[in-house]
Amino acid sequence: MVVLPAEKPLLLIRLCAPRGFCAGVVRAIDAVEEALRKYGAPVYVRHEIVHNRYVVEGLKRKGAIFVDELSEIPQTDAPVIFSAHGVPKSVPADAEARRFFAIDATCPLVTKVHREAEIHHKRGRQVILVGHEGHPEVVGTMGQLPDGAVTLVETVADVASLTFPAGTALAFVTQTTLSVDDTEAVIAALKARFPAIAAPHKEDICYATTNRQEAVKRVAPDVDAMIVVGSPNSSNSQRLREVAERSGCAKARLVLRAEDIDWALFGDIRSLGITAGASAPEVLVEEIIDAFATRYRVEVETVSTADESVFFPLPKTLRPEGA
Q: Which of 69, 254, 257, 289 is the most interior residue, by most CB within 10 Å?
């Protein structure tokens, strides 16, 4: 039982903006929702459509069935949707061989990285991918090219250990949800070691990742604690927590829902920063603010560092006729 003081202490909440859903996540979730509306349940989804348990559970209740691999799906005419993180080329090939009605909800900014990697490969370049091993986006990007055509690096130390035959033409691409600062260091190391390496025409780290990290950098130095609303398996959410720590906030935690708040850690603060990863819905931010409001007199101010107006249309098969 929680015993609250008669007079609640004041808590200033500094709310980061932008935060939460990005255009790619909205598109992916809308794709599942529209497929359910248009074709009815079930709709099969390979991997979590986005990395947020709350979102996934909500879609399950509406009739979405999530699987790890296509082999788990029985022969069906129901839609089979690929997640926002992208998939190796073998996955749509397998879906076609099984005559599945496949819908690709890969974020267009991830698809951009896929196309860049393919172009470099066609031009005879070895592709270096800056990213986190095992992340679905990295698996999908590496799976666009033949085995051995992509070399994965995560750190500056990885760059130092790279070896290629003399005369090897090189290019690099990056995962879209990395820490901007960490990635800059790795890219600088790549350019220092391989001055002729081909770079992306435009930075691969997506606008939403960059904008959310910039907002955290603005807020984190001036608050006692920071909450990043998001799932542990969300790369962009984990990066936001790291950015908060590096920006001077010692109490920075990733929290999925209000029930996960560690009140022993957050019980004596006077200021709190809140942001949300690109796959976290705003309702969870509101839930967490409400939880603090039961213990504090809450004042909320929004700290905005960018305006976002990016919109991605649904996959073609889900758009209204004539759209």
A: 254
| Residue 320, in any domain of the structure | no
Backbone dihedral angles phi then psi of residue 201, each to the nearest 5 degrees? -65, -35
Torsion of CA 176, 243, 251, 248, to 10 degrees: -170
Whether 218 and 297 map to the same domain: the answer is yes
The set of residues, in sequence order, having a beta carbon less than 8 Å from that of 119 and lying 6+ positions away, is none
Task: Flag whether pLDDT at 322 surpasses 60.
Answer: no
Domain CATH number, residue 239 = 3.40.1010.20
In a domain? residue 250: yes
**b/e map of 116-139 (b: 16 or more CB within 10 Å)?**
bbeebbeeebbbbbbbeeebbbbb
Mean per-residue pLDDT over the chain, rounded: 95
For the record, the structure tokens of 105 come out as 């909800």
CB atoms within 10 A of CB 82: 24
Residue 32, classified by CB atoms within 10 Å of its CB into exposed (0-12), middle (13-18) or buried (19+), is buried
Answer yes or no: do 179 and 254 share one domain.
no
pLDDT digits (tens, 9 = 90+) for 114-145: 999 999 999 999 999 999 999 999 999 999 99
DSSP-based three-state secondary structure for 285: helix
DSSP assignment, residue 193? H
In a domain, 3, yes or no: no
Contact between 305 and 21 under an 8 Å Cβ cutoff? The reply is no
pLDDT of residue 138: 97
Q: Which residue of the set 137, 259, 286, 287 is catalytic?
A: 137
